[in-house]
Amino acid sequence: MSLLARLAPHLPYVRRYARALTGDQTTGDHYVRVALEALAAGERVLEPNLTPRVALYHVFHAIWCSSGAQLEAPEDDDGLAADDTTRRLMRIAPRSRQAFLLTALEGFTPSEAAQILGTDFAEVERLIAEAQAEIDAELATDVLIIEDEPVIAADIEALVRELGHTVVDIAATRTEAVDAVTRKTPGLVLADIQLADGSSGIDAVKDILARYDVPVIFITAFPERLLTGERPEPTFLITKPFQPETVKAAIGQALFFHPRRTNKQAA
C-alpha cells in the first residue's frame, strides 16, 4: 500500500487539528502540506511502532516544532480572532493547547497524545489539567442538573461547584426541569434519562433545546436509549457509574466547543 493510501483516511482529521491549533485553515493546511512533502521526500518517516494516524500526527508535530511556528490566531478586519473558540484556544499555553486538542478534539488517549508529543503519560495528564483549569476559570456558568437520585445529584453538584460553576437548580422530573429553565436560563444542562415520576430526561432536554441553545451532557445508566439516531443527539454521553474526572472533562469540553449560546425565542 502506498504512503498516500495509508494516510488518506487521516488527512481530513489532521487538517482539522492543524486549523484548531493555528487558528486559521490556510496556515494549518500549510503545515500539513509541509509534513506530507517531508514524508514524500524521505526527510521524515512514519514511526513503524505507531499506528498510521498517530504516526502522521507525530510527524506533523515534528515539522511544527522544527519550523519555529508561532501559535497565534490571525486577526479579522475588526482586530478580533475568527470566533470565540479560536480566541479561547489561543489563550491556552501552547503545549497545554496541543494536549487538550489531541484528546478533546481528536479523541486520542493520553498515551497516544504522549507518543505524538514525544513525552510521557504523566506530562500529558498535567498539560490537560492545566488546559482544563484555564477553560473552567474562563467559562464559569450556571448549571441545571436533571437527576432524580438525591445522592447522585449531590455528587454531580459537588463536581460542578468544584469547577467554579453555579448550580441554579436540581430537577427530579421533566416538569421541574422545564420550570427551572423558565426561572433561570442555564449555560449547561447535565441530565439523567429516567426520572422520578416516570418522565424522561430526553423529553425534558428536547423541551429546553426547543427554546434555548445550550450544551447538554447526559449522565445515565441507560445509554442505549440515546443511541437511536434521533434528537437530542448525545454529543456528550457518560455512563453510570461515572468517574468524577470523566464528568469534569466533559463539562470543560462541552462549554469550550459549544457556539455562543442564544435564546431561540429572542432570535
TrEMBL record:
Q: Which InterPro entries match?
A: Bact_response_regulator, CheY-like_superfamily, PhyR_sigma2, PhyR_sigma4, RNA_pol_sigma_r3/r4-like, Sig_resp-reg_PhyR, Sig_transdc_resp-reg_receiver, WH-like_DNA-bd_sf
Tell me the Gene3D superfamilies matching this sequence. 1.10.1740.10, 3.40.50.2300, Winged helix-like DNA-binding domain superfamily/Winged helix DNA-binding domain (1.10.10.10)
Query: PROSITE patterns, from UniProt?
Result: RESPONSE_REGULATORY (PS50110)
Q: What keywords sit in the KW lines?
A: Phosphoprotein
Keyword Phosphoprotein attributed: yes
What start-end ranges are recorded for coiled-coil regions in this protein? none
Please provide the Gene Ontology terms (biological process) for this protein.
phosphorelay signal transduction system
What SMART domains would the database entry show? REC
Response regulatory domain location: 142-255
Question: Which CDD domains does this one have?
Answer: REC_PhyR
Residue numbers of 4-aspartylphosphate PTMs: 192
PANTHER family associated with the record: RESPONSE REGULATORY DOMAIN-CONTAINING PROTEIN, STRESS RESPONSE REGULATOR PROTEIN 1
Q: What NCBIfam families has UniProt attached to this entry?
A: PRK09191.1
Q: Which named protein is this?
A: Response regulator
Which organism is this protein's natural source?
Phenylobacterium deserti
